[in-house]
C-alpha cells in the first residue's frame, strides 16, 4: 500500500494559510502587548493606592487619598481607554485567528510522526549523507540540487526517535547523532541518553535478528564497539530475476517468507538508480519511432524506448504535451486535497489515499480524449469508457511511495466492470516528474524508469492463461525532491481479446507489441 503523509496540495495550502495567520498575529501582537502593559501599570497604581486601606476607609475624607484617587483615574484611564480602543480595531484579526481550526484542517502530532517516518524512509532508501545531516541539511543525493532546509537539533531528534520506533535503526542512530552535534548544552545530556539507548537497541537487534528483515534495518556492524559504522551494503546480495526465481524457488516457504524481502531489497536498489540486469540483456534494448501501424501516426511517429523485452515494457515519449499536462494538473488540483472517504467512494469520488491524492477521471475532457486517441492508434487497443477504467490521477505527497504490487485484480478479486474485465495493459503517464527519486521500478525485471514529464510507460499484465504475469510487479519509489503527478489508464481485456492471436502456451504473454 501507500504510506500515510501530507499531500503537496495540502502543504502548499498550509504555506499560504500559515503566512496569512502570521500576518494577523503580527497585527494583534503589538496592541495586545501594549494593553497588557497598560493594564498592569493601572492595576499596580490601584494596588499602591489602596495599600493598607480597607473598604471602610474609603469613606474617610482624607484629602490626600482623594487627590491620589482622582489622579490615578484621570491619568491612568486615558491610557487604558486608548489601549482598549486599539484592541477594538483588531478584533476582526482575533476573530480570524480564533476561527482558523473551523476553516482549515490543522496538522497534528500524527501528521508530524508520519512525516518523520517518510523522512526516515527517504534516508534509508537513498542513503543518508551524514556529513550534510550534521550541518543540518537533509539527505543530499546531489549537493548541487539547490536549497536544503536545515533541521534543528529538536527536529533531528524527533525524526531519529520515530526512525528507531519504525525499525530504521541505522537511520535512527544517524539522526540522533546529528541532533547531538547540533544540540545546545542544555539539550546535550538528554540526547546522549537517547543515543546510547538507540545504539543499544540497534546492536542488540543486529546481533539477534541480523541486519535486515521486512520490519527492520540496521548497519552491517554494531555501533557500540566500532563507534563509526555507517551504511554499507556489505556483501552484495545475489539478484533474483526473471522466471529463474520460480525454477529455483518453487517451494511455498520461500515465496511466503523470503520473496517479500528479496523484492523489497531489489526495489530499493532500483530506486537508487541501479540496473540489476546483465549486459547481454540490456544490450538488446532499442529506441525507435513507432506508429503502431496507424496511418494517422505515420505523419508523427512516437519515440519509443524499450525498458524490457520480457515482460514487454516501453516508454512512449511526448505522449502528452506540456500544455496538456498543465491543463490536466490544474483541472484535478482542487480535488486533490479532499480527504479520502472509503465509505462514499463511488468511482468519481475524489480521494486522498495515504501519500497519494487520487482522483478518478472520466475521459470527457478534450485533453484526455486527445491522449486516448493517440494511445489507441499506437497500441491498437480500444480505450473508451466502455473498454477501460476511468483515468486515475495521482499526486504523490511528501516522501510519497507505492510499495510493490501488481495491477491486475487476480482470480480472487472480480474486476469491478465485467464488460471491461481484467487489466490487460497499464499506461502510466507522468504529468510531472520528480527531480529526485520517485522512479517506477520492476523488482523481478531488474529495471526502473526515472520518469519524464509527458512520457508514458506501457506494459502488459497478463499471460494467455489469463493469469497475472508475476514479472510485472512494480513499485513507485519514495519521492525525494520535487513533485510527482501521474495519470494511469488500465486497458480492459474483454474489449480486446479477439484482436490477439491465441496461444496454446499458457505462459505466453498477452500483448500487442506495436512494431
Ligand atoms: O506512480 C508510479 O510510479 C506507479 C503507479 C502504479 O503502480 C499504479 O498506479 O498502479
Ligand atoms: Fe501499479
UniProtKB/TrEMBL annotation:
GO CC, one annotated term: endoplasmic reticulum lumen
Ranges where the Fe2OG dioxygenase domain occurs: 386-493
Alphabetically ordered keywords of this record: Dioxygenase, Endoplasmic reticulum, Glycoprotein, Iron, Membrane, Metal-binding, Oxidoreductase, Signal, Transmembrane, Transmembrane helix, Vitamin C
InterPro entries referenced in this protein's UniProt entry, alphabetically: Oxoglu/Fe-dep_dioxygenase_dom, P4H_N, P4HA-like, Pro_4_hyd_alph, Pro_4_hyd_alph_FE2OG_OXY, TPR-like_helical_dom_sf
Bilayer-crossing regions: 441-463
Superkingdom: Eukaryota
Entry EC no(s): 1.14.11.2
Record's subcellular location: Endoplasmic reticulum lumen
Entry annotated with the keyword Cytoplasm: no
GO molecular function annotation: iron ion binding; L-ascorbic acid binding; procollagen-proline 4-dioxygenase activity
Cross-referenced Pfam families: 2OG-FeII_Oxy_3, P4Ha_N
EC top class named in words: oxidoreductase
SMART domains found in the cross-reference section: P4Hc
Cofactor: L-ascorbate
Protein family: Belongs to the P4HA family.
UniProt function note: Catalyzes the post-translational formation of 4-hydroxyproline in -Xaa-Pro-Gly- sequences in collagens and other proteins.
Protein name: procollagen-proline 4-dioxygenase
UniProt source species: Portunus trituberculatus (Swimming crab)
Gene that encodes the chain: P4HA2_1
Amino acid at each position: 500500500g501507500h504510506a500515510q503523509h501530507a499531500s503537496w496540495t495540502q502543504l502548499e495550502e498550509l504555506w499560504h494559510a500559515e503566512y496569512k495567520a502570521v500576518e494577523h498575529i503580527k497585527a494583534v501582537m503589538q496592541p495586545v502587548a501594549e494593553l497588557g502593559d497598560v493594564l498592569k501599570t493601572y492595576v499596580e497604581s490601584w494596588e499602591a493606592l489602596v495599600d493598607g486601606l480597607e473598604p471602610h476607609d474609603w469613606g474617610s475624607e482624607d484629602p490626600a487619598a482623594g487627590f491620589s484617587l482622582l489622579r490615578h483615574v484621570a491619568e491612568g484611564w486615558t491610557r487604558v481607554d486608548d489601549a482598549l480602543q486599539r484592541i477594538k480595531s483588531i478584533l476582526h484579526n482575533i476573530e480570524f485567528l480564533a476561527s482558523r481550526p473551523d476553516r482549515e484542517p490543522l496538522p497534528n502530532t500524527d501528521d508530524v510522526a508520519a512525516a518523520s517516518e517518510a523522512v526516515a524512509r527517504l534516508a534509508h532508501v537513498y542513503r543518508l549523507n551524514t556529513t550534510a545531516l550534521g550541518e543540518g541539511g537533509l539527505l543530499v543525493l546531489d549537493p548541487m540540487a539547490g536549497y536544503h532546509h536545515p533541521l534543528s537539533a529538536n527536529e533531528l531528534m524527533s525524526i531519529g526517535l520515530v526512525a528507531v520506533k519504525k525499525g530504521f535503526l541505522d537511520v535512527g542512530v544517524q539522526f540522533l547523532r546529528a541532533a547531538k552535534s547540533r544540540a545546545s548544552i542544555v539539550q546535550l545530556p538528554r540526547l546522549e541518553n537517547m543515543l546510547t539507548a538507540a545504539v543499544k537497541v540497534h546492536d542488540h537487534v543486529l546481533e539477534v535478528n541480523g541486519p535486515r528483515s521486512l520490519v527492520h534495518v540496521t548497519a552491517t556492524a554494531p555501533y557500540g564497539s566500532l563507534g563509526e559504522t555507517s551504511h554499507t551494503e556489505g556483501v552484495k546480495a545475489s539478484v533474483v530475476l526473471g522466471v529463474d526465481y520460480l525454477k529455483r524457488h518453487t517451494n511455498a516457504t520461500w515465496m511466503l517468507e523470503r520473496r517479500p524481502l528479496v523484492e523489497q531489497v531489489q526495489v530499493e536498489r532500483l530506486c537508487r538508480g541501479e540496473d540489476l540486469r546483465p549486459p547481454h540483456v540490456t544490450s538488446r534494448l532499442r529506441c525507435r519511432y513507432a506508429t503502431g501501424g496507424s496511418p494517422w501516426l505515420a505523419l508523427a511517429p512516437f519515440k519509443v524506448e524499450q525498458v524490457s523485452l520480457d515482460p514487454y515494457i516501453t516508454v512512449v515519449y511526448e505522449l502528452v504535451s506540456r500544455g496538456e499536462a498543465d491543463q490536466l494538473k490544474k483541472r484535478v488540483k482542487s480535488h486533490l486535497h479532499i480527504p479520502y472517504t472509503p465509505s462514499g467512494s463511488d468511482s468519481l469520488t475524489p480521494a486522498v489515499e495515504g501519500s497519494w491524492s487520487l482522483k478518478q477521471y472520466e475521459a470527457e475532457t478534450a485533453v484526455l480524449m486527445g491522449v486516448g486517441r493517440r494511445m489507441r492508434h499506437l497500441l491498437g487497443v480500444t480505450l473508451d469508457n466502455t473498454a477501460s477504467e476511468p483515468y486515475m490521477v495521482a499526486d504523490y505527497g511528501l516522501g510519497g511511495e507505492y510499495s510493490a504490487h501488481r495491477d491486475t485484480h487476480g482470480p480472487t478479486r472480480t474486476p469491478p466492470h465485467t464488460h471491461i474485465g481484467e487489466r490487460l495493459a497499464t499506461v502510466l503517464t507522468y504529468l510531472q516528474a520528480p527531480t529526485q527519486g520517485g522512479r517506477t521500478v520492476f523488482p523481478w525485471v531488474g529495471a526502473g524508469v526515472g520518469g519524464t514529464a509527458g512520457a508514458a510507460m506501457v506494459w502488459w499484465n497478463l499471460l494467455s492463461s489469463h493469469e497475472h504475469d508475476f514479472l510485472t510487479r512494480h513499485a513507485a519509489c519514495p519521492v525525494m525532491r520535487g513533485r510527482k503527478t501521474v495519470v494511469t489508464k488500465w486497458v480492459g481485456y474483454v474489449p480486446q481479446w479477439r484482436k490477439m492471436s491465441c496461444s496454446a502456451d499458457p505462459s505466453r504473454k498477452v500483448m500487442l507489441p506495436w512494431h
